[in-house]
Amino acid sequence: MNREIEKFEDLNISDNVKRAIKEIRFVKMTEIQKKAIPYILEGRDVIGQSQTGTGKTASFGLPMIEKIDKESKKVQAIILCPTRELAIQVTHAIRRYLKYEDNIKCIAIYGGESIERQIQGLKKGVQIVIGTPGRVMDHMRRRTIKLNNVKMVILDEADEMLNMGFEEDIETILKDVPENRQTVLFSATMSKRILEISKKYLNKPKNIKIDAKQLTVEKIKQVAIEVKAKMKDETVCRILDVIEPKKAVVFCNTKKKADSLIDVLKLKGYKAECLHGDIKQSQRDKIMKKMRSGDTQILVATDVAARGIDVKNLELVINYDIPQELEYYVHRIGRTGRNGRNGIAYTFFTGKEKTKLKEIEKYANTQISLGTIPTLKEVEKVKAKKMVKNIEDIIQKQNYNNTEIIEILLEKKYKLQDISKALATLLLCEPSDTEAKYDFTPDENGNVRLFLNVGKKDKVMVKDIIGCFKAHTALSTDTIGRVNLLDNFSFVDVPAGFVEEVMKKVKGQVIKGKQVNIEIANY
């Protein structure tokens, strides 16, 4: 077979399937499709290393359909997926390919749904089963699914199935299907356990690996920000405020951190939901429904919980933690910037994690630019622009309400311009902002000297002061000026644009057991 095929129309597949994929607007094949489909059509066992977003479902789905005997209503192909969401996603894709193939049926079977309903579906006769290992095992025990006529087995996201503890189930299922079957395995990573399974159950497989540079989506702007752990929650909020994404995903490495962050986001009024291993299936369904409809703006998730979740028009990904595996970085950011759209991915790192960041760049053959935490002034500018637009909309529609306040103030002889400024101040600022007035004159370098009530006698060191400033503000080591540490107090130079932020965020914090007080220094 010609392995240089570039277009779907040139594949040796049925006209009905070609007609369906043409409607889907599949034209040019992705790298994994070009490399895998010809071998799978030939009947070869295949191992494909490819992450979500590279078109792997079509890679195994299209050739699988060609091998189905339409005259037989017995199960001939089985696709195993780690999560309910991925099983549903794959089923949806396969059904789109089968739009004009009336005699081929597929069914999704997974936990969290009535097994009786699934049994009824299986009884009607299906040739393709897409399911999670646990639920497939349930049907095998009940003898409601027979695998003795299976000609093809596909393991999708094999690494995650192993990470979720499905190894024994997978082996049990593979032992129950005919030995002369064709087996196709797809995985984002190639661990030792994956290789052991492939050696045991695949017959002289063709290994296909997509180079790292082909995995990286060009339309994704990648930015890394050095952030102290205490400042991470605040930084997430500032990025969300500045970018204002309609849909965003924040990745955390642990369930505990995901729960903690979601509490912060909800407290600040963001439309956010959390997904991790402890979330029940029924709740997961509700969360994803809200995300797709736009009722939820931000999804906070762990890697395993997010597998198989496909959110359309995702604009922003934030790596709250650097992923534990290099491959996960590509998997995470690949969720944005799809279908020709632009996306942006932020990754937070601490000073100790710079090496890990370099490893990611080398692995993914990409460059991650260094960025800074958005300042409060940047956030305020965005809020101001949004407020201007809202006000303009109200003026254009003449949709005025509660004008009594304006009328009372006008009666008191206040000018309309002053009233407008006062109302804008109330709308755009926190209550403390309206009270705080900082009188200062920057020096020739644009810096302002601040007085701190901590010094050497408090066992405070310069690094402690810098660390406190970095932990609670958008200041970096490079932007903090001279620190003059004396016995009973200290002086710190900061750029004029950060004075208000320092006064709000650092004042009251504790350094070496002493509460910090800050004032504008008198030269």
Keywords:
single chain, 523 residues, alpha/beta, Rossmann fold, 4 domains, 7-stranded parallel sheet, 22 helices, 42% helix, elongated
Radius of gyration (CA) equals 29 Å
CATH topology heading of the largest domain: Rossmann fold
Q: Into which percent range does the helicity of residues fall?
A: 40-55%
- Summing up helix and strand content along with how strands pair, one would put the structural category as alpha/beta
**Given the structure, what is the number of helices?**
22
Low-confidence stretches: 431-435
The CATH homologous superfamily of the largest domain is called: P-loop containing nucleotide triphosphate hydrolases
Strand content: 15-25%
For the biggest β-sheet, the strand order reads 3-4-2-5-6-1-7
Name of the CATH first level of the largest domain:
Alpha Beta
Kindly report how far apart the N and C termini lie.
82 Å
Task: Count the beta strands.
Answer: 20
Q: In CATH terms, what is the architecture of the largest domain?
A: 3-Layer(aba) Sandwich
Number of domains: 4
Q: Given the C-alpha coordinates, what overall shape results?
A: elongated
Described by strand count, sense and barrel closure, the largest sheet is: 7 strands, parallel
